[in-house]
Amino acid sequence: MGIEQPTLWDSTQVAPRILHVSDLNRRVRSLLEGDPTLADVWVEGEVSSPSFPASGHCFFTLKDATSQLRAVIFREELARLAIRPTHGAAVVCHGRVRAYEPQGIYQLYVYDLTPAGAGDLHAQYEALRMRLAAEGLFDEARKRALPRWPRRLGVVTSPVGAVWRDIGNVLRRRYPLIELVLSPSVVQGPTAAPAIVRALQRLYADDALDLIILARGGGSLEDLWCFNDEAVVRSIVSAPVPVVVGVGHESDVTLSDFAADLRAPTPSAAAELAVPDGTQLPAILGRLRDRASAALLGGVADRQRHLEAERRALTGVAPDLSAARQRVADLVDRGERALGASLQRRRLTVDGGRNALRALGPAATLERGYAVARLADGRIVRSPDEAPVGSPLEVVVARGRLDTRVEGTHADRAEDLLG
Amino acid sequence: MTEPATDEELAARPFDELVGELQRIVQALEAGNVGLEESIELYKNGLRLHAACEERLRAAELTITELGRRGVPGAEPAGAEEATGG
Questions:
Q1: Are A285 and B16 in contact (CB under 8 A)?
Q2: pLDDT recorded at residue A208
């Protein structure tokens, strides 16, 4: 190498970062794990060279015309699968892609394996489930609580067959107070989905309904397919009252189950969940009656105790009562005395008044030497011009009358005359 | 408190309403803040409600209405066990 060639150490470029193999594998692994598509994926292909080592896991290659992919099914999943992978089988695998760091490979970790023909249905199901879930149709927050005491229950199912009979039997045994409304529907075959939607809509028109059960017995994936229909799912979501879905067996989960306010594992379970347990009601009612009796008797006993306490309190204060009576008597005495004195004072006052009145009266005045002059018509004379010269005058004095005649008149003030 | 209802009125009311009223009466009695006369009236009403509920349970028969299958909303009942209501 030439002298002009820069060495690694004096290069102006940043030194390349050197990774360990394990670092790189970890980086690839986290890269794959960060991809949501790879975390939950359906892959169709042909099984090639499956092996079943002593670990109980299954390793195989999934391939199509141009590519291949390592795949593994762990023991637990393998035990649950309906089919075992066989060489040359066309399958759809559901799983996730991860890197296996120790070997620097990536592979498909398979949860579920189905024949490729059914895979179409699965893919449809999964695509619809994702789309409706993204709309929020399956949100837990959407789900309504069932009424505690339903009065009227609508059922959509086939009117023939065990399911309808089982529901009736459960309700008859458990809560026969319920009014049951059957809205019959075909629940299998190509006409089932629209028929179910119509049957639901008929119930939605019933304002008195408290809740609805949508039920069907067990069957194949294809038999239950109508419960994965988008129109059925949307109709359930639009229900004005809570809907309980009980379709097939415990392991069958349809999109209708996701949309339901409550998913029941079976039709009979749906009926059980929809109503209260009436067999407990007599006992509950009995306890209520007992509580009422106990409360009433307790109330009476409380009052008796209260009365007894008051009676004791009354007996205890009796001496105070006599003291009070004494106080009252004293007060009355004082009152009477005060009243007597007051009356006495008033009598004196009245006597004084009478004397004063007497002193002011005309008789006393006359007695003091005054006289009253009256004209013939009885008018009392107060001014000389009331009695012209020659008028007869009667003069009243203390002890008699004088008949006189006016000789002359003089307009003088009485005070001057008497002064 | 509510007026005492006649037996006919009790029979016409929904079962859960009767149970609910019985529960309210029990609670009122247990709260203990009603007078003696009112307590006795409440208790009598409670007993009548209890009897009405028991009678309802005893006589209960599942009523079934089957909606018509022609897809007409509110179609006429068509089942053998036609609903009698109430």
A1: no
A2: 93
Vertex A107, ends A106 and A111: CA angle to 5°? 145
What's the ipTM?
A: 0.74
DSSP-assigned letter for residue A241 = S
Nearest chain B residue (CA) to A159: B66
For chain A, say whether B67 makes contact (Cβ under 8 Å): yes
Q: Flag if B66 and A184 touch (Cβ within 8 Å).
A: yes
Answer yes or no: do B26 and A295 touch at CB < 8 A. Answer: yes
Three-state SS across A287-332?
HHHHHHHHHHHHHHHHHHHHHHHHHHHHHHCHHHHHHHHHHHHHHH
Interface test with A, best of B62, B63, B81 (most A CBs within 10 A): B62
A177-186, A236-245, A339-348, B62-71: range with lowest mean pLDDT? A339-348
End-to-end CA distance of chain A: 171
User: Contact A406/A388 with Cβ under 8 angstroms?
Assistant: yes
- The pTM assigned to this predicted structure is 0.53
* B86 reaches A (C-beta below 8 A): no
Residue with tokens 């008033």: A346
Q: Which of B44, B54, B65 to mutate to test the interface with A (most CBs of A within 10 A)?
A: B65
Interface contact B26-A291, CB threshold 8 A = yes
**CA A17 to each of CA A5, A21, A31, A324: distance values in angstroms, whole numbers, following the listed order:** 21, 13, 18, 110
Domains of chain A (ranges plus CATH)? 21-134 (2.40.50.140), 140-275 (3.40.50.261), 364-418 (no CATH)
Q: Note the pLDDT of residue A342.
A: 65
CB nearest A202 (choices: B25, B73, B83): B73
Helices (H), A34-71: 36-39
Kindly compute the dihedral angle of the four CA atoms of residues A255, A257, A261, A262, in this order, to the nearest 10 degrees: -170
Banded model confidence at residue A354, pLDDT cuts 50, 70, 90: low
Q: Do B74 and A205 touch (CB under 8 A)?
A: yes
Query: What residues of A are in contact with residue B23 (Cβ under 8 Å)?
Result: 288
The CA-CA-CA angle for residues A111, A113, A118, to 5°, reads 135
At A182, the pLDDT band (50, 70, 90 cuts) reads: very high
Q: How far apart are CA A135 and CA A152, in angstroms?
A: 31
Higher pLDDT, B48 or A350: B48
Contact assignment for A159 to B62 by CB distance below 8 Å: no
Cβ neighbours of A198 in B, within 8 Å? 71
- pLDDT at position A246 is 95
* Contact between B73 and A179 using a beta-carbon 8 Å cutoff: no
Assign A229 to helix, strand or coil.
coil
E strand or H helix that includes residue B76: none
Classify A277 in phi/psi space as left (phi over 0), alpha (psi -120 to 50) or beta. beta
